[in-house]
């Protein structure tokens, strides 16, 4: 996956195109990410004694990871992500705009 938890991403496709948010959860098996404030759906909830009131709550739904682009913290541009292989076989993510590594 090119994005990780706490990355800031830009939505590039779909209803919320143009929105930015922080990745809250990555679901690698589904190829989806949950982004704060993006892909909100309204849920009608019933009251449950002592837990919550009845009403409409807004909730994020996971969206396809392919539909978001990482925003580089260094150059603040939406970017594609490259990988740099290190001698110990671990990889580092690299911003393809400014070539800086991404933590
Ligand atoms: Zn960059």
Describe this structure in words.
The protein is 0% helix and 47% strand. It is mostly beta strands and 103 residues long. The chain has 2 domains: 1-71, SH3 type barrels, CATH 2.30.30.30; 72-103. The radius of gyration is 17 Å and the shape is elongated. It has a 6-stranded antiparallel beta sheet, with no helix packed on it. Strands 9-10-11 form a 3-stranded antiparallel beta sheet, with no helix packed on it. A two-stranded antiparallel sheet has the order 4-5. It binds zinc ion (ZN). Residues 72, 74-75, 77, 79, 95, 97-98, 100 line the site of zinc ion. Zinc ion (ZN) binds at residues 72, 74-75, 77, 79, 95, 97-98, 100.
According to CATH, the fold-level topology of the largest domain is: SH3 type barrels
Tell me the number of helical segments per DSSP (H or I, 4 or more residues long).
Answer: 0
Structural class: mainly beta
Order of helices and strands: EEEEEEEEEEE
Summarize the structure.
The protein is mainly beta. 0% of the residues lie in helices and 47% in strands.
Please describe the structure with a list of short key phrases separated by commas or semicolons.
2 domains, 3-stranded antiparallel β-sheet, binds zinc ion, 6-stranded antiparallel β-sheet, 103 residues, 11 strands, 47% strand, SH3 type barrels, mainly beta, 0% helix
List the helices and strands and how they pair.
Elements: E1 8-11, E2 20-27, E3 32-35, E4 40-45, E5 55-60, E6 63-64, E7 68-71, E8 78-79, E9 81-85, E10 91-95, E11 101-102
Antiparallel strand pairs: 1-2, 1-7, 2-3, 3-6, 4-5, 7-8, 9-10, 10-11
The chain binds zinc ion.
């Amino acid at each position: 996956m090119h994005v990780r938890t706490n990355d800031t991403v830009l939505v590039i496709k779909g209803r919320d195109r143009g929105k930015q948010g922080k990745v809250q959860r990555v679901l690698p098996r589904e190829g989806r990410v949950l982004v704060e404030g993006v892909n909100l759906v309204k849920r009608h909830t019933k009251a449950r004694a002592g837990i919550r009131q009845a009403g409409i709550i807004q909730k994020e739904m996971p969206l396809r990871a392919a539909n978001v682009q990482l925003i580089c913290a260094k150059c603040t541009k939406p970017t594609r992500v490259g990988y740099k292989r290190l001698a110990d076989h671990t990889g580092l993510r690299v911003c393809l705009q400014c070539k800086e590594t991404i933590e």
